[in-house]
Specification:
Layout (H helix, E strand, L loop, with lengths): L1 E5 L4 H15 L10 H9 L5 E10 L2 E11 L6 E8 L8 H15 L4 E9 L7 H8 L3 E13 L11 E6 L8 H14 L14 H13 L3 E9 L4 E10 L6 E9 L8 H17 L3 E7 L4 H10 L2 E12 L1
Parallel strand pairs: 4-5, 10-11
Antiparallel strand pairs: 1-2, 2-3, 3-4, 5-12, 6-11, 6-12, 7-8, 8-9, 9-10
């Protein structure tokens, strides 16, 4: 089998690479996957947070398996994330194992200490799947789990204001008046999100990084809805949530972040920002869709908010690490 490096410059090769990855994701009951042009922009663009590329295994002109790599440039810079996908008729024929060998070689070549993989198809209670069996058999260690919940839109919703807080909303760009505090909240989100035993380092967000992320989402064709809560007495940005998607996959939407500043917790701000953001999202898209979110089981306050909104659990996403 030939190993093909995929950097997005060869459009036809990238299309073949993407198709293998996309088809594997579509086997999930509630699939989530970047659209073709969204994925292409991630690989070909220059981003402050990460760079992305991939490799494919090709047998007589047929793409039989691929591996997608996210090389982190901020925070945890000694890890690399890899996602492996194999064409169904080529499974259990050593393709995934060969791709894993290539992944280890590439990680070492870039001086990365840890190879990180995620299984998306774990049972919602046990977390087990064929992917977790593959990872465990090859020396990966389970480091963390997240509950995958979905909400089928549209739903009736009635936002409930919280006394002492004002709701503000924006779309693709954070207003200049809020961007410093918004960066501070995103740093708090990065520091506080439950990560189990994963190898992580907090990213310190700045207005420049926020603008870079916004530009990347626009280059990928994404749209974003943001709702934040402002503490009226102090003018402090107390909480925010982000949701969005891409017209390439109109039936699949994503809950990106929801975060409440530590000093403002206990007032119901999670629900106070999520409900109006959902209302704006539903109005904006104007069609049925499935909203996806992931939360660590120990993040009980956020799961409780999701339950109130009608989210239901459908799978576990588990994070695995291999020291290389």
């Amino acid at each position: 089998m030939d190993i093909v490096l995929v950097d997005g410059q060869d459009a036809a090769a990238f299309d073949q690479f993407y198709k293998v990855k996309y088809d594997a994701r579509m086997e999930l009951k509630f699939p989530v996957c970047n659209g073709l042009e969204e994925a292409r922009a991630a690989v070909t663009g220059t981003h402050a947070e990460f760079r992305a590329d991939g490799v494919g295994l090709v047998e007589d002109g047929v793409w039989v398996g691929v591996a997608w790599f996210d090389w982190w440039l901020l925070g945890t810079r000694d890890t690399v994330d890899v996602e492996i996908a194999v064409v169904p008729e080529w499974r259990r024929r050593g393709v995934a194992s060969r791709l894993l060998e290539v992944a280890v070689e590439r990680a070492r070549g870039d001086s990365r200490r840890v190879l990180v993989g995620s299984d998306l198809a774990g049972d919602p209670v046990t977390g087990e799947s064929a992917g977790t069996a593959f990872a465990a058999a090859r020396g990966f260690v389970r480091k963390h789990a997240e509950l995958h919940q979905v909400l089928e839109l549209p739903i009736p919703i009635a936002p409930k204001p919280v006394t002492g807080y004002e709701i503000v909303q924006w779309r693709e760009h954070a207003p200049d008046e809020w961007i410093e505090q918004f960066a501070d909240l995103q740093t708090g989100m990065d520091a506080d999100v439950p990560a189990g035993e994963r190898t992580t380092d907090t990213v310190t967000w700045t207005p420049a990084l926020i603008r870079d992320a916004e530009a990347r989402r626009l280059a990928q064709g994404r749209f974003t809805y943001v709702t934040a809560a402002v503490h009226t007495a102090s003018g402090e940005l107390a909480a925010y949530t982000q949701m969005g998607g891409t017209p390439e996959t109109p039936d699949r939407l994503l809950q990106y972040d929801t975060y409440v500043r530590r000093s403002h917790r206990g007032h119901g701000l999670g629900l106070a920002v999520k409900a109006p953001n959902l209302q704006a999202l539903q109005t904006g898209i104007g069609r049925p869709a499935v909203l996806h979110t992931w939360n660590a089981p120990e993040n009980t306050p956020m799961i409780a908010v999701n339950n109130k909104l009608g989210f239901r659990p459908i799978a576990q996403r588990t994070a695995w690490e291999l020291n290389v």
